[in-house]
Amino acid sequence: MQQSWHAPSEARFASETVSILGGTGNLGFGLAIRLGVAGYTVCLGSRDAARAQDAAAKAGHLTGCGTFTGCLNDEAVAQADRLVVIAVPFASHVSTLKSVSDRWRAGHVLLDTTVPLATAVGGRPTHLIEPWHGSAAQQARAAISDDVGLAAGLHTISAAALCDLDRPLDQDTLICGDQAAKEVVTDALERIDGLRVVDAGSLEMSRLLEGLTPVLIGINIRNKTHAGIQVTHLGAGRGRGPSVLTKTRPVESAMTAPRAMRGPTAKTPRSALAAGDNDAELSGS
Residues 172-194: pLDDT tens digits? Predict the structure, then answer.
């Protein structure tokens, strides 16, 4: 059973469907609305179909554009034209992938955003646990078919930044994985206003990229902000083109937040400051 929310017709940049496993969680939902604004049809997957349908309706009303569909995770994989994103807590990472194992098709690409934060075992969000395979993304590689492409990324983009549609992201995301998969992921993510994708190499780099999340969580907790990263001295990506912030503010460092946001600000709950919102408290399934 699925339900779609359609905004009034208008020009779209892309016609394909991108699906998000855990699309009802903070990170998955934020990515969904950004992709919807960029012109994609977005399928929000969840273990709870009603919750997914509610999230799809909310996304449509927030953006006023695009088509959003809510359904079960396995149906979401079946609906995807090429790209499927998994945005669930590490504790439900493998079980989610196993639950959709029979819905993959050759040519599908999985973008894994999961980070093995120690919160999965009752620890701190500024600590990591080490998966048996080395990283969450390498764990995903072992859990999915070999004919499904795999890339890992979005470890440093906060859900709060994604959900703030009034502000271009003005950030980079580092991705790693299969070359063909990275090309599909880059094509989709760089349609998001203010987001540039930087190729960080093969999937083995995922353990290092995932390690950036607890670093940024600590930075965000100390500074009460939603900092991201920028890699300097690279050419502008497609996503950087229309960014008002990029045109008006120079890159100051590899880890940036607007200067006005640095230092003490109004109190923000610690859980809301997670860099990638991959914590079990903040991600959906």
Answer: 999 999 999 999 999 999 999 99
d(CA 260, CA 23): 31
Decide: helix, strand or coil at residue 130: coil
257-263 long-range CB contacts below 8 Å, 24 or more apart? 257/223, 257/225, 257/226, 257/227, 257/228, 261/223, 261/225, 261/226, 262/223, 262/225, 263/223
* 3-state SS class at 199: strand
Enumerate residues 6+ apart whose C-beta is below 8 A from 67. Answer: 4, 5, 6, 7, 36, 41, 42, 60
Question: What is residue 105's predicted lDDT score, i.e. its pLDDT?
Answer: 95
Confidence of residue 248 (pLDDT cuts 50, 70, 90): very low
Task: Considering only residues 248 and 56, tell me which one the structure prediction assigns the higher pLDDT.
Answer: 56
Catalogue all structural domains in the chain, each as residue range(s) with its CATH number: 3-273 (3.40.50.720)
CB atoms inside a 10 Å sphere around CB 55: 26
Q: Write the pLDDT tens digit of every residue in 69-126.
A: 999 999 999 999 999 999 999 999 999 999 999 999 999 999 999 998 767 777 777 7
- Return the C-alpha torsion angle 250, 271, 74, 199, nearest 10: 30
Alpha-carbon separation of residue 242 from 29, 87, 121, 170, 193 (angstroms): 23, 27, 42, 10, 6
State the sign of the Cα–Cα–Cα–Cα dihedral 15, 177, 119, 125. Answer: negative
